Amino acid sequence: MADETVPLNRYLALPKVELHRHLEGSLRLSTMLDIARKHGVTVPVSMLNLSGLVQVQDKDPMTFSNFLDKFKTLRLFYRSPDVIHRVTREAVEDAAKDNVHYLELRFTPVALSRAEGFPLHDVMDWVITSAQDAAKTFGIKVGLIASVNRHESPELAEQVAWLAVDHQKRGLFGLDLAGNEAEFKSNPFHDIFKEAKQSGLHLTIHAGEWGPAENVRDAIENLGAERIGHGVRVLEDEAVVALAKERGVVFEVCPTSNFQSGVVTTMEEHPLPQMIAHGLKVTVNTDDPSVSRITLSNEFQIAHEKLNVPMDALKQSILLAAESSFLADAEKAELLQSLKKQMNLR
Length: 346
Ligand code: HPA
Ligand code: ZN
Description:
Blueprint: H1 2-13, E1 16-22, H2 29-39, H3 50-54, H4 64-74, H5 81-97, E2 100-107, H6 109-114, H7 120-138, E3 141-149, H8 154-166, E4 172-178, H9 190-198, E5 202-207, H10 213-221, E6 227-230, H11 238-247, E7 250-253, H12 255-260, H13 272-277, E8 281-284, H14 289-292, H15 296-306, H16 311-323, H17 329-342
Parallel strand pairs: 1-2, 2-3, 3-4, 4-5, 5-6, 6-7, 7-8
The chain binds hypoxanthine and zinc ion.
The site of hypoxanthine (HPA) has 9 residues, from loops.
């Protein structure tokens, strides 16, 4: 609709930073169709229904299990090194087109390696190489985070963590715990994350999304999280809010993802403004732009127009995202300076 283009441009024009985006949730539908044709990927129902299998639909149940099911189908597509190169490159290109200046892209080596049994170290090498190449091509800065899932093997997670430690110099800055928080505790991963942190990796943990505020405490105290993926349910426990503030923990909030996975029942009741009002450090992110059929600009529009967060606060959240990125100090300072200049901030 013509009148939707005008307001969106204001959000597109903002130079943005994305701290929470999954590669596996960023595949273009057109690319998936292409891969399915070339590799004969058999999906359970007709190709016309592909969108319904890999993207949340208005008629879908807004539940975490429906949301996570999309990733099960998405795993069928990682059929060759070329596919992994292509989807990585396109994810970076799409972020650049949305005027994201720094993208911290997370990827799940176990997911990417499954369909064809690719070695984990090859998959990591392919993603890192393509992401850094694409960053140069499309004029965007990219950092990488390796993700492991709570509902999958801690032994594989340990392998991913050690490979990640070895790839730090190539821009793989962090480790993330994702997956089914509603049904799986983090205990089997405590030692892995502790050792990864001691080896220099930064940590971000999905917590307080599909599980209670107590999981945010667990992520901070037992896993050593510097940042929390989502964490919106932190507001259910004042003591955990106080802990997060005391430790300066940063929240990677993803409004549409929260609506689509049933964390909130309407967009308007999303707790982003209350989190800001409580003095928590909050950033705005997409989570899975393709699964959710959104861009980061869309999320800024929602934050301002549906959640009434003032533009000034959103600009500050962009600077906060740059400050709490996993970039080295010198690069972070450079990014901050360039963002301030473009937003006319000092
Ligand atoms: N939560 C947990 N795991 C995920 C998510 C999420 O929001 N998105 C992709 N994997
Ligand atoms: Zn996520």
